[in-house]
Amino acid sequence: MREPIDFYFDFSSPYAYLASHRIGELAERFGRAVTWRPMMLGVAFAATGGKPLVEIPLKGDYAKVDLVRTARLAGIPFRLPSRFPLATLAAARTYYWLEETSPAAAVPFAAAAFGAFFAEDRDISDREVIADLLAGAGVDAAVGLAAIATPGIKERLRAVNDEAVARGVFGSPFFFVDGEPFWGFDRLPQMELRLAEIAA
Amino acid sequence: MREPIDFYFDFSSPYAYLASHRIGELAERFGRAVTWRPMMLGVAFAATGGKPLVEIPLKGDYAKVDLVRTARLAGIPFRLPSRFPLATLAAARTYYWLEETSPAAAVPFAAAAFGAFFAEDRDISDREVIADLLAGAGVDAAVGLAAIATPGIKERLRAVNDEAVARGVFGSPFFFVDGEPFWGFDRLPQMELRLAEIAA
Lengths: 200, 200
What we know:
The structure is a homodimer of 200-residue chains.
Chain A: E1 5-9, H1 14-20, H2 23-29, E2 34-38, H3 41-48, H4 59-74, H5 89-101, H6 103-118, H7 127-136, H8 141-147, H9 151-166, E3 174-177, E4 180-183, H10 188-199
Helix pairs in contact in A: 3-9, 5-6, 5-9, 7-8
């Protein structure tokens, strides 16, 4: 089996949500696994002077048009969240807790968190919503909520943030295929061509 | 005939160069003309807090990888210019002078200026290069170089910049199809789908 595809993202990134609908199937077609790496994009922004799209004049308004159009053309359910952006620290920490303790539940939890935010307009910064998602993944929610407040899990997420910045991640979603970077949902077709070239 | 597609760009934008290779054929397929609108992207950046890609840490380095890859996959000749970015005021003013005085030469001049910069690594901020390109378009270069220093042509470009910002242009290339905005070479497939929907 070839190297996994690294998939860095922030749970508050709508383009990462769109990519989360496609990356599993795309990777599998080329015999690859996917390493999901939720992170705090704000840390990367601090390194690059980037800003959340919605805070940028003109570009933020355009992004809303582009997102709705892109989701429609891709056939992926999407609605603009009424609260945006949200704090995604709890969701990211929960992912790493699951990865350590119930690895089979980690990606389903992440996919459900994305769907809750971008298809169902739920507030994934809310502990109750995180608890619901954990219960949906068949995991003891109380144990999870307690675990994500521990220093070990906080440190795990910090280490991923640092690793992402060190690898040049500056936006979300951000992928690496055998070390080659691909940024954005709109680069999945290029990633597919590259995967095909490598497989040939 | 339907409304023309508006094509705003800065001559220093490599993604606009790539788009310049496709937009004519794409528009024609749907019975549309293209209104080429060279502008000073710096004016839009002043309004949005944007910056040239190459000046942004990490993102600038990634853009070089992405550009070469995107051009290769699209089959468009491209090399990273050795001098970048360049002042594109003279090229933009020359375009508007041609549009007024020799309209049939304006788009061929713009296409040649893009190719000089991004395929042949020539310095299009240089008056000699502009003179060459004018001569190549069958136009008296000395008359052109004199004309672009006149207040009328300067004012024409300023008016386009103002109009672009007023319409929400914040990047290059930037298109409008019946008022709907599309930003980026990578959005041409979406524009094509929209043109097809309108034509249906």
